[in-house]
Design goal:
alpha+beta, Immunoglobulin-like, 5-stranded mixed sheet, 1 helix, 10 strands, 21% helix, 35% strand, elongated
Length: 198
């Protein structure tokens, strides 16, 4: 009986020791997890840097390759980060726009008559992320003094060029301005005149 009692006491002590060891292990794990979380919270990251010129790809799209005289056109400038890291871009609406050219003549430049007080904003572009900016042309020939123009661009072949950060992009989009089709004449019905009988 004494031997059995000794064995029982030994087992109880072993179980208690095991429970205590598990408790100490759990406390150590919890302390380590808390310390790791604290290190992560205190960790500092380098802020994203401005995008390199080579990492930015611009494209200009518009609805149709044919525009009617005086109708103007709606366009969209897309800027995409094609680099390998996220980066920042400063957007200045006064330096973003579109230029319309015919031959060597500048017909329209949307940045030429922008005010200097247009607010700027900074964008964070992740890898392969795109940013779109709407643009428009009223279909008229711009006056050199930026006064309102009433002269519509004549029928002919023109080119769109995007302007980004004050720089004219080399890619060109060719489009045609043509006269609007003449309205069709309303159909007239002819009424037969009865021939008098002799």
């Amino acid at each position: 009986m004494l031997a059995i009692a000794i064995i029982v006491v030994a087992l109880v002590m072993a179980v208690r020791a095991g429970i205590a060891a598990v408790g100490r292990w759990q406390q150590a794990q919890a302390a380590e997890a808390k310390a790791y979380q604290l290190r992560m919270e205190q960790r500092t990251f380098d802020p994203p840097k401005p995008c390199e010129k080579e990492a930015l790809q611009t494209s200009l799209t518009h609805a149709s390759p044919v525009v009617y005289v005086g109708a103007g056109d709606q366009l969209e400038l897309t800027m995409q980060n094609t680099g390998k890291v996220a980066c920042t871009v400063t957007v200045d609406p006064a330096k973003i726009g579109v230029q319309v050219v015919s031959g060597n003549q500048i017909i329209y430049n949307s940045t030429a008559c922008q005010g200097d007080k247009t607010p700027q904003k900074q964008l964070l572009l992740d890898v392969n992320m795109s940013w779109k900016y709407p643009l428009s042309w009223d279909g008229k020939v711009q006056n050199a003094d930026c006064s309102p123009s009433n002269q519509a661009a004549k029928a002919g072949t023109y080119r769109f060029q995007a302007i980004w950060n004050g720089t004219l992009m080399p890619e060109e989009t060719v489009f045609v301005v043509q006269d609007a089709p003449a309205p069709s004449a309303p159909a007239t019905s002819e009424t037969a005149t009865p021939t008098p009988s002799s």
